[in-house]
Amino acid sequence: MKLISQASLQIQKPIEEVFEGIINPISMTKYFISESTARLESGIEVYWRFPEFDDRYLVKDIKIESNSSISFVWDPETIVNIVLKSLPDKSTLVKVTEAGKEFNDQNLAWLVENTAGWANFLACLKAYLEYGIQLRIGAFEFMRKAENK
């Protein structure tokens, strides 16, 4: 059995704005990452850095369907799929799944952590796109301090 991390959230912005907010590294640095080597585009590889970690993370096998879906691999065992759906009130439903890990105790811990992580990603995206609030600033500094002990 393969594990699937899932999170969904409705954002009160048109699908075009939400899509751009996810693929544009300038926007992404306002709510998710601290640095990116490029915009998300099909067929390229990108490196992301997060504010609380020193490592760079390779994002590859990127597949983009404009205003519809984004998929990529950043863990060799999983595929991330982000699906956007325009709703009648001109808001956007965003669904994130990350799947592929085998069922075991270690991967159950991954499932809990990544489900919370994707829910946080969506909350930060919503706060930034709807209100210009950058929820991630300082939110994970405790992780950097724990890493340096």
Question: Secondary-structure map with pairings?
Answer:
Layout: E1 2-11, H1 15-23, H2 25-28, E2 35-36, E3 46-49, E4 56-65, E5 69-73, E6 79-86, E7 92-102, H3 105-131, H4 141-147
Question: What does the model show?
Answer:
By secondary structure, the protein is α+β, with helices and mostly antiparallel strands. The chain has a single domain (2-144), classed as 2-Layer Sandwich (Alpha-D-Glucose-1,6-Bisphosphate, Chain A, domain 4). Helices cover 32% and strands 34% of the residues. It has four helices and seven strands; from the N terminus they run βααββββββαα. The protein has a seven-stranded antiparallel sheet with strand order 1-7-6-5-4-3-2. Strand 5 (69-73) and strand 6 (79-86) form a beta hairpin. The protein is globular, with a radius of gyration of 15 Å. The model has no long low-confidence stretch (mean pLDDT 93).
Show unreliable segments: none
Largest sheet: 7 strands, antiparallel
Summarize model confidence as the mean pLDDT.
Answer: 93
CATH level 1 name: Alpha Beta
Give me the Rg, rounded. 15 Å
The domain count comes to 1
Mass-distribution shape = globular
Strand order of the largest sheet: 1-7-6-5-4-3-2
The CATH superfamily bears the name START domain
What structural class do the secondary elements suggest? alpha+beta
Helix-strand sequence = EHHEEEEEEHH
Number of strand segments: 7
Distance N terminus to C terminus? 37 Å
CATH A-level architecture: 2-Layer Sandwich
